[in-house]
Amino acid sequence: MGKRYEVCLSGSGGQGIILSGIILAEALGLYGGKFVAQTQSYGPEARGGASRTEVIVSDEEIDYPKAIKLDLLLAMNQKSCDEYYRDLKEDGMLIVDSTFVTQVPTSKAIQIPFTKIAREKFHREIVANIISLGTITEFMDIISPKDMEAAVLARVPQGTEKLNRDALKAGVMAARKFKESVKEKDSQPQELQRED
Amino acid sequence: MGKRYEVCLSGSGGQGIILSGIILAEALGLYGGKFVAQTQSYGPEARGGASRTEVIVSDEEIDYPKAIKLDLLLAMNQKSCDEYYRDLKEDGMLIVDSTFVTQVPTSKAIQIPFTKIAREKFHREIVANIISLGTITEFMDIISPKDMEAAVLARVPQGTEKLNRDALKAGVMAARKFKESVKEKDSQPQELQRED
Question: Between B13 and A37, where is the model more confident?
């Protein structure tokens, strides 16, 4: 990894964004031994129901804990995708919940229907955030899957460990499937991009 | 309130410090309409089991989201009291869990045995953090008790609402009792300071 890696997780209140941020920060910091700063800010826009958290990772002590230019943006709804895409680096990674984000600003967006998977596979929309953490784990080389699992299990309610472990795995598998679909698309340029 | 008010909540991992920080930030930001930035940082000291979160509150947009000089420090164990007291403003407020903090650096410290109350009154050590939020609500004029209750209830596990509401109230009552004991002490200078 470089010296500093900036992540923003965003969506609506109730999608578990803040919990995801804590889990991601703890996977990298508490379990992974990196320097991590995680911040959530509340202002007029939070009162509109938006939820956003920033996770900064570094090999060195972090002087400025807020994101300057994002390496990775997770957008769990259309509004946060529209609003925060401009904060992404040119070669940054955009991951969207394609259940709600139907218009992406770049063809390179990683589109995975986290909430649809949560509903259909687990009958619990609430695990969409944990599925998205599985996808992030697969795409962010600096996270160890073992550390992520430990961080998830330490933060989810007692009795929901199996559900959340399975949700995390579903996110990893969805990410791999997406990678495959991109490979296929590259070899068959006419084919439309598939979402799931 | 002034332009900027800085709070640090600190203790050991497992004392629910991060959750307290989120609840405090949401009470002030989501429910109270203030600008709030809440940060937790992980570095070598986190791996030693320490837990620390910072909540910055302002009437204006917050440019720098980390604490510079604290207005309020909550120390839930001795180590965090020893370590972070130096970050407190000269007229800042120190609140300690006197279950674990037996040596205070100032006679002005607000000493309340949060964990002892949690154990004895609720038979659940885990609510010590919610009790401490009740005390903070009583001492921090800018928090509305109604906003704090709403923020607590939105973040605690389903089914524990009554327990946590009662814990919050116990923290308010303990704070009032402490204020009374200080008044008594001031009128009877010979009396020893009482902890509970």
Answer: A37
Closest in A29, A42, A47 to B25, CB measured: A42
Which of A36, A40, A43 lies at the smallest CB-CB distance from B42?
A: A36
3-class secondary structure for B122-183? HCCHHHHHHHHHHHHHHHCCCCCHHHHHHHHHHHCCCCCHHHHHHHHHHHHHHHHHHHHHHH
Choose, out of B42, B64, B156, the residue to mutate when testing the contact with A (most A CBs < 10 Å). B42
- Closest-CA residue of B relative to A60 is B43
Contact yes or no for B50/B70 (Cβ under 8 A): no
d(CA B76, CA B63): 29
Nearest CA in chain A to B45: A30
DSSP A146-163: HHHHHHHHHHSPTT-HHH
Task: Render pLDDT for B69-86 as a digit per residue (tens, 0 to 9).
Answer: 999 999 999 999 999 999
* 3-class secondary structure per residue, A31-96: HCCCEEEEEEEECCCHHHCEEEEEEEEECCCCCCCCCCCEEEEEECCHHHHHHHHHHEEEEEEEEE
- pLDDT, residue B190, reads 53
Q: Angle of helix B128-139 relative to helix B17-26, nearest 10 degrees?
A: 40
Beta carbons of B15 and B99 less than 8 angstroms apart: no
Which among A132, A67, A133 has a CA at the least distance from the CA of A98? A132
What pLDDT digit, counting tens, does each position of B1-51 carry?
458 999 999 999 889 999 999 999 999 999 999 999 999 999 876 666 789
C-alpha B25/C-alpha B133 separation (Å) is 11
Q: What is the ipTM of this complex?
A: 0.86
Q: What six digits make up the tokens of A177?
A: 């499937």
Q: What is the pTM of this model?
A: 0.90
Residues from chain A contacting residue B36 (CB–CB below 8 Å): 41-43
Quick one: pLDDT band at residue B141, thresholds 50, 70, 90? Answer: very high
Q: Which residue has the higher pLDDT, A14 or A81?
A: A81
The verdict on a CB contact (< 8 Å) between B18 and A22 is: yes
Pairing of strands A35-42, B35-42: antiparallel
